[in-house]
Structures are given as structure tokens and as C-alpha cells.
Amino acid sequence: MSNSKDTSTRDTKQRIVTAGTELFRRHGYTGTGMKQIAAAAGAPFGSIYHFFPGGKAQLGEEVVRTSGAVYLGLITTLMEPYEDRVAATRDAFTAAAETLRELDFADPCPIATVAMEVASSNEPLRQATSEVFDSWIDGLAAYYAAGGIPRPAARETAGSVIALLEGAFMLGRAARSTTPVIAAGKAAAAVVRAALADG
């Protein structure tokens, strides 16, 4: 009986985090209410405060950190099969453009959505988004370093690639077009190619 209750409790918490991730991604942190999250999760409103006594800010941190780890896993899964770092980078942007189209130009990245909103108003959330971006840069830097780019340059290259991707998402959403993402992919591939040549 206890195991069943524990599983149900974990499932409810996971549904709340998943609903928060989706709603923050689509409507932003400030544009999403706790009642919306409870309704989307199919959870009693009070259960959000049971799991997240710190309220929306605590839930926001959980969403940022959880979805950040998922996205890091996606980056790794998508790029690791490639030995050619330039092709991997270019193809990752092509896949990102397709994702943007499939989402009807809603923001595919809840981390960026939250970061843009709270960078100057919510220090714990700003810190959480910063740490997630750092983890992505570290993960991508390790991949580039394994492909022959020296360590310091690999981190700088990874930071540039992430910045190009996030900026391209913003431009693509505004234009309702994948063109900025494809163009950014060419630029990112060129950055990686130059770093490999320098290495």
C-alpha cells in the first residue's frame, strides 16, 4: 500500500512539473498561473503547495533544472553519434528548425523563456537558468574537445553555438520562419570549423 501511495505521489509531482514546463514554455513564467498548472496536471490545486511550499518560484526552479537536464540529454543523444563535429552542429540546427515548425513557432526552450523574464527580477530563478545554460555549454564543450578543439576554445565555441541557437529561436518565433535557425546553423558550423582549424 505504501509503495502504491509513493508512486502516486511521485506521479502527481511529475505531472505538475511537466505541466509547468509546457505552460512556461508556451506562455512564459509570468503569464502562467498556478491554477492553470494544476488544471493541466489534473492535480488538486493544494497539491502544488504540498510539493512546492515555496510556491510558483520553487516550482519554476524545479521546472528549469528538470527540463534543463532533459535538454542536455537531448543535445548529447543528437550529437554524440557524429564524429564530424561540423556536420553534427549543422544537423542539430536543422533538427531544431524542424522542432520549431512542429511546435507552430512556440518557444521550444522553457529555459530561455524563463531566463528572459526573470533575469532582473528573481535571483533564484536567474541563478537556476544560468546554471542550466552552463551545464549545456560544459556538455557541448566536452563533445567538441573530444573532437580535437582545445579545452578553452571548446568552451568558447560551445557558448557561441548555444547563443546562436537561442537567438535563432527568438528570431524564428518572431518571423514564424525556420530561416533564422537554418542561417544560424551555418554560422555555428563555421564557428566549429574555425575552432577545429585553429586547434
Distance between the termini: 59 Å
Structural class: mainly alpha
Radius of gyration: 18 Å
Task: Tell me the overall shape.
Answer: elongated
Assess the beta-strand content as a share of residues. under 5%
Mean pLDDT: 91
**Overall strand count:** 0
Q: Give the SSE string.
A: HHHHHHHHH
Structure in a nutshell:
The protein has nine helices and no strands. It has 199 residues and is mainly alpha-helical. It is elongated.
Could you explain how this protein is built, in words?
With 199 residues, the chain is an all-alpha fold. 81% of the residues lie in helices and 0% in strands. The chain contains 9 helices and no strands. Helix 1 (2-27) packs across helix 6, helix 5 (85-102) runs parallel beside helix 8 and helix 5 (85-102) runs antiparallel to helix 9. It starts with a helix and ends with a helix. The model has no long low-confidence stretch (mean pLDDT 91).
List strands and helices in order, with pairings:
Elements: H1 2-27, H2 34-41, H3 45-51, H4 56-79, H5 85-102, H6 110-118, H7 123-146, H8 151-175, H9 179-198
Helix pairs in contact: 1-2, 1-4, 1-6, 4-7, 5-8, 5-9, 6-7, 7-8, 8-9
